[in-house]
Amino acid sequence: MRTLMTEPSSIRAPEPATNPQEEVVFEEIAEIAACSLALRQWERQHLPTEASPVGFELLMRLAHWSALGQHDRKALLKQLYLALPYSEKGVRLHLRRLEAQGWVKVQRASSDSRGTRVELSEMAWKLLSDYVKEWRRHSPPAPAD
Fold first, then answer.
1. Residue 123 maps to which CATH number?
2. C-alpha distances out from residue 110 to 74, 76, 83, 84, 115, Å
3. How many domains does the chain have?
4. Max Cα separation, the chain?
5. Given CA atoms 111, 112, 113, 116 in this order, what sign does their dihedral have?
6. In tens digits, what is the pLDDT along the chain, a chain of 145 residues?
7. Burial degree of 80 (CB within 10 A; 0-12, 13-18, 19+)
8. What is the Cα–Cα distance from 55 to 47, expressed in whole angstroms?
9. What is the pTM of this model?
10. Is the torsion defined by CA of 96, 97, 99, 103 positive or negative?
11. Is 49 helix (H, G, I), strand (E, B) or coil?
12. Measured between alpha carbons, how far is residue 58 from residues 40, 122, 144 in Å?
């Protein structure tokens, strides 16, 4: 069975744009792709997620909830398990690694002894602040309408 990987002749560059609108779309795609690639490079070098979608989504979910002030800046561990589309074991593995490296704090909930709360550390907030700056630096300008 032959696939695209073994059949280079099946991969072709797009036809040249035939109208100015198509050309603008191709230019925007190229610019967005370049920005996305540069940001992904920064993420791989700086974020403590080991280029894993599980680790990345875990960190971003905690950042999202915390920044919105939901869950009193702390998330219940069970809420994380339910919110992420990964196995509990996978989330737990990444959470333990983030905790061991000082990116998150995991502690028993004081109001409910059955629950465990997770919050971002100051070190994580600093890194996320740097991430926002990097994201703004690489974000393409909004297309003109």
1. 1.10.10.10
2. 12, 12, 22, 24, 8
3. 1
4. 66
5. negative
6. 444 455 555 666 666 656 777 788 888 888 889 988 999 999 999 999 877 899 999 999 999 988 887 555 567 788 888 889 999 999 999 999 999 999 999 888 676 666 788 889 999 999 999 999 999 988 766 766 6
7. buried
8. 9
9. 0.72
10. negative
11. coil
12. 17, 17, 35
Domain of 26, in residue numbers: 22-138
Six-digit token string for 131: 């991430």
Write the DSSP symbol of residue 110: S
Does a structural domain hold residue 12? no
Find tokens 């003109």 and name the residue: 144
